[in-house]
Design goal:
- The chain is α/β, with parallel strands linked by helices.
- It starts with a helix and ends with a strand.
- The radius of gyration is 22 Å and the shape is globular.
Length: about 450
């Protein structure tokens, strides 16, 4: 116990500070990744100058580029901006200024390794600390906004992470959060790899009827969720025909009831759905996004196009699983899935299905998910369209269309600087040298 005396003293000090209204001071003293010193200073007016600035909508670079930031908002952006007296100027040389990246499918509460076992072995407090560290990694990689698509068994612990970020206690992206995803008994993420007699907890919240689905959504919203995630298909199985067989978990009418209930409180519903008929049920019901979307029918694509429902491909996690499979059979299965998904993605593009960018980061290292944009280009999208999918569509999917995703007056000052021209070389988005979120500089050369 003697080795823990320092930690116990710190905890006691934090508890005492909390009782006296000094919680933020205690946090700053206690965590190793404390908010940057410059984030604690008043930066009322900042001018960012660089060789180039990305106009996302036009798919063009403006040269040179400047952004005038007042407080947490952009005041001006263009080739040149007003230079008020007393403003702080940050000269980023030959870099390209662009909006902070958006990842519409992350798992802050997961890390590389045996996913099933980490959710059993690691306590929720431990996983919450790791999630805070993951949020920092993503921010430093230039991702200033994310949608966390499930804590995988940690319940509403993501509410604490989101709120700590919002209150300036820890660094991280602005977040939309889901708590646990929703599934059925014996469905996706229901500890199906374990001995059922051991009663290992599901990584999702159960809902086995329409009434249970509505009640679960109400509980999750009460606990802080501002996005609902439903597992609509699972468990996937490959067939001898090279196609996926994907049992649905909820009917169209059940999904409609879920969307109506969440929508009553202004909250969108997204689904994990890999194939038919679940993807069609989800599209007809009117979900905000269909994530993974490995194999969808012509009719589903038509509905998604008409209703402007986003597909979120999540290529990177499949690439990572294929490269890190422990068996040759596992690697072969992942490669088969990748080949199928790549071909299906091209069909979806040709059909005009709207795309957003989500990496499924968590099972692979946080802060490396810019790879998703590279893979979308490799699989048939132009770099300009991928950037629009990430920044414009991502902002819309996260319900921040009028606040993030563009360098425009009135938008939040979420700005990054990268080395290179992402319109010519999309891998430039992985070469981040400067990060500002809400007008606060977190990373600089």
């Amino acid at each position: 116990m003697a080795g823990n005396s320092g930690l116990l003293a710190t905890v006691a000090t934090m508890a005492n500070s909390f009782r006296h209204g000094l919680w933020s001071t205690a946090i700053f003293a206690a965590v190793a990744f404390a908010y940057p010193a410059h984030a604690q200073q008043n930066q009322p007016i900042t001018i960012l100058h660089a060789a180039h600035l990305l106009d996302v909508q036009a798919g063009a670079l403006i040269s040179p580029g400047e952004v005038l930031v007042r407080g947490e908002r952009i005041a001006e952006a263009g080739r040149t901006v007003t230079h008020p007296a007393g403003a702080t100027t940050v000269d980023l040389g030959q870099a390209t200024l662009m909006p902070g990246l958006i990842d519409a499918h992350v798992h802050l509460f997961l890390h590389p390794g045996d996913e099933d076992m980490q959710t059993v072995r690691e306590s929720v407090p431990e996983r919450t600390i790791l999630a805070a560290l993951a949020a920092r990694e993503d921010l430093m990689a230039g991702f200033t906004a994310e949608r966390d698509m499930g804590t995988e068994g940690a319940g509403s612990a993501d509410t604490a992470v989101r709120d700590a970020i919002n209150h300036g206690l820890i660094p991280g992206p602005r977040l939309r959060i889901s708590g646990n995803a929703i599934s059925i008994l014996g469905g996706h993420e229901d500890a199906i790899h374990f001995n059922p007699d051991e009663h290992i907890s599901s990584n999702a919240d159960y809902a086995n009827s329409t009434d249970e689905l509505i009640a679960t959504i109400r509980r999750q919203i009460k606990a802080g969720a501002d996005n609902i995630k439903i597992y609509e298909t699972g468990r996937d199985q490959g067939g001898p025909d090279g196609r996926l067989h994907t049992p649905f978990q909820f009917t169209e009418s059940q999904l409609t009831a879920a969307i109506d209930e969440a929508g009553r409180q202004g909250i969108p519903v997204a689904v994990h759905a890999t194939g038919e008929p679940g993807t069609l049920y989800a599209a007809k019901a009117g979900v905000a996004s269909i994530d993974h979307a490995y194999q969808i029918s012509d009719e589903t694509m038509r509905v998604m196009r008409e209703k402007k429902i986003f597909a979120v491909p999540t290529f990177t996690v499949s690439e990572y699983f294929a490269a890190h499979s422990s068996t040759s059979a596992g690697m072969e299965a992942e490669q088969t899935l990748i080949t199928l998904h790549n071909a299906e993605f091209k069909r979806q593009l040709a059909a005009g299905v709207p795309m957003a960018v989500g990496s499924d980061v968590g099972p692979f290292p946080h802060g490396t998910q810019a790879r998703e944009l590279e893979l979308m280009v490799q699989n048939g999208m132009s770099a300009a369209d991928v950037l629009r999918a990430d920044l414009l569509h991502g902002a819309r999917l996260l319900n921040w269309a009028d606040s993030i995703g563009q360098l425009k007056p009135g938008f939040y000052a979420d700005v990054i600087a990268i080395d290179g021209n992402p319109l010519q070389d999309i891998s430039a988005v992985a070469r981040v040298r400067f990060v500002m979120k809400n007008g606060i500089i977190y990373r600089r050369p």
